[in-house]
Design goal:
The chain is of the alpha+beta class. The protein contains 7 helices and 19 strands. The protein has 3 domains: 3-77, OB fold (Dihydrolipoamide Acetyltransferase, E2P) (Beta Barrel); 106-160, no CATH class; 165-380, Chloramphenicol acetyltransferase-like domain (Chloramphenicol Acetyltransferase). Strand 18 (332-338) and strand 19 form a beta hairpin.
Length: 383
Amino acid sequence: MATRFRLAAFGHTMEVGRIVEWKVSEGDEIREGDEILAVETDKAVVDVEAPIGGVLLKIVGLADRELPVGATLAWIGDAGEEVPDEPEEAPAAAAADAPPGERVTPVARRLAERHGVDADALEGTGPGGRVTKEDVRTAIESGAAPRKEDEAPEGVEVVPLAGIRKVAAERLSASWARTPQVTEGVEVDFSACLEARRDNRDAWKEAFGVEPTINDIVLLATATALGDNPALNAALIDGAVHRYARVNLNVAVDTGEGLTVPVVKDAGEAGLGDIARAVAALAEKARAKRLAPEDLEGGTFTVTNLGGMGVDWFTPVLNPPQAAILGVGRVRRVPVVDGDDVVVRDRATFVLSFDHRVVDGAPCARFLARLKELVEDPSSWLV
């Protein structure tokens, strides 16, 4: 008997998923554990494995379609086996671009909107006369596409919020609107850390298998400072403050298509090599769109570093429900007054945003002071 293959929840917050692509076709022989499709969740693009082996008899969840958790993706069974005659799976109600029965498919409407085309005025070639993305693309390429009255000016591409970007926008907007966010900052001298890294680079690379970055050093110092200031390693959940014994650091990674924040687990118990290897592996998986749900869950504090992009300082927005987030600017050579002398030092700015409902300014100031102390004098903990 053919087996129904459903969309599973990849994490407790997932309600819908968008089918990015099928990596196999109907009629293909597949094995249990084969990666057969990619699904975009609210946090990442996940490669989904076949739950059983057999023949992919029928694909129900089509590419570029958002479906609710539990929706039928496909049927798997033996070659020639009959499958239930059921309609194409309906899109998730919360994510659909049009109500059931709409003659323009959601993906066709999104494509039309990006190009200022009036999809409702097109003649559809799909089942029941539905307008498909191929209909929209054909109309655009022919130059005969009917335009919307409110079409974007020439040279402007309208890109609807969707997928990870849409979820991030919704959550950060909610975070900003509902949370009393306060920001504190401090300048930090990185000269000793840079010197330690230069002196130990080869030895570290040989011992760890990777070359630790300045950001890896910041992460280790952050985990240590959080251990000394546990009030910041917390979250506000259902009206109660949750303080965590484990320090799990979300690390912001730019994938080129948006920001994702995988988690370095148990950073408070890790050494520099552990953190460097974990960050390198997570960044590689993020850019290859191969992060697993467990790579994105369990974070207790976030660090986001824009120094590599030349940013001196910025105000990070809280990653809910976490109580605090640290923004790191670039290390720059600047003149500094040292007694009666002016010397050149390597300095950067740390900016901490925190939820004032969870923690007050004084504990946050102590955290920044401890972090500054660690970075400016790494002799006792880094080497």
